[in-house]
Amino acid sequence: MNSSAMNGAHILSTGSAVPSICISNEYLSNTISTSDEWISTRTGIKERRLLPKDKSIIDLATEASLSALQKGLIKAENLDLIILATSSQNDLFGSASQLQASLGAKHAVAFDITAACSGFLIGLITASQFIRTGAYKNILVVGADILSRWVNWTDRRTCILFGDAAGAVILQYNQTNDLLNFQLDSNGNDFHQLSIPYTQTQIHKNTVESLYTYPQGGKYNYLTMNGKEVYKFAVSQVPISIEECLKKAELSTDDISWLVLHQANQRILEAVANKLDIPMTKVISNIKYYGNTSAASIPLALDEAFNSGYICNGDIIVIAGFGAGLTWGTTIIKWHAIH
Ligand code: UT7
Asked: Lesser CB count within 10 Å: N end or C end of the chain?
């Protein structure tokens, strides 16, 4: 289909939710061998939120979604599609349909996207394709993760980094298209640099059947990460992705009003901005308060930026995500407020 003949995709509203339990660096330094000084200077993180054990990812995703629906003045029953980007779903078959039920979005089809910290970005781009072809008009895209349940709380290299949150965006059909372009990449050769690996139960019986019968079970291990390699990957690939996306949209770094990066490390935000010669005054950062919230980090940062009134009509927002897979990518939005 000719791009100019396609429908436009427009961000109608955003929402987010964070749990009330707040864990400071000082608290962690009483439980593991770390310090506020180390965490603050190496990552920019001061505190993170944790979901209480009687709550599920669906509770968090529902709260963020209801906020976006309310701000967009749209009813859940008018949604055509729900995409839940998460890597901490409560069912291996996916959790999006539980979110659909929780919202009462009875006309929506729902599915999950599992792409860790790039999940929301990939979900947003996927949603825009359904809108641009005319298949759907109102889509809810949610990024939600509760990695606090997947980190080893005695491993100081990883547990200090992550927090729980959810963020949501309503993407709607419009005559003008505000998602100007996108760039997505994967490198599965380096998947082991950041992973929650699955281990199968050992088969002890030395029989022919044991060679082909399905293993009895297994378990997921804790999140593992080679921090240095992931850092190098982010700082080298994200600027290239942003530049390629800007080129496709016939824009330059000077046109950027706001840079919204996945909030993994303040030093990564600064290194990427520095490589692209973008002043830090244009870089949205809330990592200090939430740590790395995986798929939720971009929609949470976006929602806070919209709520604080920084973003004005006509602003160019460059959004870039990166993480496990490895996956990374960029999209560019021209912001038009409708309400
Ligand atoms: O969302 C997915 C994307 N994830 C990321 O982008 C994460 C990218 N990586 C990073 O942000 C950084 O690599 C980290 C923050 C994870 C680590 O920072 P680093 O500057 O690369 O530190 P390092 O791993 O090289 O560790 C330096 C030292 C080590 O001690 P030795 O071997 O030099 O004696 C670590 O054992 O710091 C030690 N260390 C700590 N010390 C106090 C590691 N974690 C801690 C800690 N507290 N929490």
From this structure: C
Distance 41 CA to ligand 1 centre (A): 11
For ligand 1, the distance from its centroid to the CA atom of residue 155, given in whole angstroms, is 11
Q: Is 34 in the pocket of ligand 1 (CB under 6 A)?
A: yes
Pairwise CA distance, residues 13 & 68, whole Å:
5
Which residue, judged by its Cα, is nearest atom 5 of ligand 1?
264
Give me 212's structure tokens.
């082909």
- Residue 3 tokens read as 């791009």
172-209 pLDDT, tens digit per residue, is: 999 889 999 999 999 999 999 999 999 877 666 666 66
Average pLDDT over all residues of the chain: 94
Q: Which atom of ligand 1 is nearest to the CA of 234?
A: 6
pLDDT (average), residues 275-284 = 98
Indicate the top mutation candidate among 152, 231, 326 to test ligand 1's pocket, ranked by most ligand atoms within 8 A of CB: 231
* pLDDT of 1: 45
User: Quick one: pLDDT at residue 310?
Assistant: 87
What DSSP line would sit under 281-301, residue for residue?
Answer: GGB---HHHH-B-GGGHHHHH
Q: Give the CA-trace dihedral at 269, 272, 274, 275, to 10 degrees.
A: 180
Give the pLDDT confidence score for residue 205 in this predicted structure: 64
What are the b/e assignments for 24-53, b being 16+ CB within 10 Å?
A: ebeebbeeeebebeebeeebbbbbbbbbee
The CA-CA-CA angle for residues 228, 229, 230, to 5°, reads 95
Which residues carry out catalysis?
A: 117, 262, 292
pLDDT at 332: 98
Ordered by where they begin, the domains of the chain are 3-177 (3.40.47.10), 180-190+224-334 (3.40.47.10)
Helix (H) or strand (E) holding 335: none
The pairing of beta strand 258-261 with beta strand 316-323: parallel
Minimum CA distance residue for ligand 1 atom 36: 157
pLDDT (mean) for 65-89: 97
Residue that has been written with the tokens 């939710």 in this structure: 17
